[in-house]
Design brief:
Layout lengths: L3 E3 L5 H10 L6 H9 L2 E6 L5 E10 L2 E9 L8 H13 L3 E6 L4 H6 L3 E12 L12 E2 L5 H12 L4 H10 L1 E5 L2 E8 L2 E9 L2 H13 L5 E6 L6 H6 L4 E10 L10 E4 L7
Parallel strand pairs: 4-5, 10-11
Antiparallel strand pairs: 1-2, 2-3, 3-4, 5-12, 6-11, 6-12, 7-8, 8-9, 9-10, 10-13
Length: 270
């Protein structure tokens, strides 16, 4: 039987190889960010190469399961289920969430996950003629992290300060009176997220402000279709190119509804 061991830094190169095989854009740095706020497992073949991965990113009483990949040559042999069972055990009694591909969804349903919505991925090169932000937006900094963590917790129901601090250390923060957005290098270019806002107008202002500083550059935003951001994202040059199914196991997150997540940190991290 293929052994499953704790995932550590020595497995990152193989993780990148697996994600490239799956068609994911993740760089080593992107894997390292997820690992920095997660515990994970790796399946190793007879030569010690990683042939499967799964991570558990715990945020208080909730956890996101992610980076779930099985080498194409080994799919359909039960390895994916073993990896999932291992990270579910790591999560303990936390409520769980993940974003499923069509291929993975049947397994997740067998493990007790239920579909709760869709995630839509928009990306492309930002066009040069943009609508101006409708509200004042400024550059944020470390002094804003308490406020950012509070807004994010209101939107997600999870304590993600450790993740937000790591993103802020290497990325850029935009602040509005009623929301925030973070930008960082990811995959083919830059990802905008998380973005939490009190109103759709605030969310649009933050997106417009981010896009105005990126003409001709590649930008990705993962959002939910019910938020109505599609027309704006199309306007700034980010067509809908894919997505996944949002799934949960356990009680729904306790949000206070004063803020809404308009863009995910990533499909892996929510």
């Amino acid at each position: 039987m293929i052994p499953i061991v704790p995932f550590d830094d020595s497995h990152l190169a193989d993780g990148v190889r697996l994600s490239q095989q799956a068609g994911w854009p993740h760089r080593r740095e992107d894997w390292a960010l997820v690992l920095s706020v997660s515990t994970g497992v790796a399946a190793l073949d007879a030569e010690g190469r990683v042939v499967g991965t799964a991570f558990c990113s715990a945020f208080g009483d909730r956890a996101a399961l992610n980076m779930i990949i099985v080498d194409a040559a080994l799919r359909g042999q039960g390895l994916g289920r073993r990896l999932m069972e291992a990270v579910i055990a790591l999560a303990g009694d936390r409520a769980l969430s993940l974003v499923a591909t069509p291929e993975g969804r049947p397994l997740y349903e067998k493990l007790g996950f239920a579909a709760t919505g869709e995630i839509v991925q928009h990306q492309g090169e930002v066009v040069r003629h943009l609508p101006p932000p409708g509200l004042p937006v400024r550059t944020g900094g470390a002094d804003d992290l308490d406020r950012i963590a509070a807004m994010d917790r209101a939107a997600t129901g999870a304590d993600r300060r450790a993740l937000l601090t790591r993103i802020a250390a290497s990325g850029r923060i935009l602040m509005a009176e009623g929301g925030f957005a973070m930008l960082r290098e990811f995959g083919r270019g830059t990802v905008l997220g998380p973005l939490a806002a009190d109103t759709p107008l605030t969310a649009r202002a933050l997106i417009a402000a981010a896009a105005q500083g990126m003409p001709g550059r590649f930008l990705r935003i993962d959002t939910r279709p019910g938020l109505g951001l599609g027309p704006l994202l199309q306007e700034i040059g980010l067509p809908h190119v894919g997505g996944g199914t949002e799934m949960h196991r356990g009680p729904a997150p306790r949000r206070d509804n004063s803020f809404t997540t308009h863009a995910l940190a990533s499909q892996a991290l929510g």
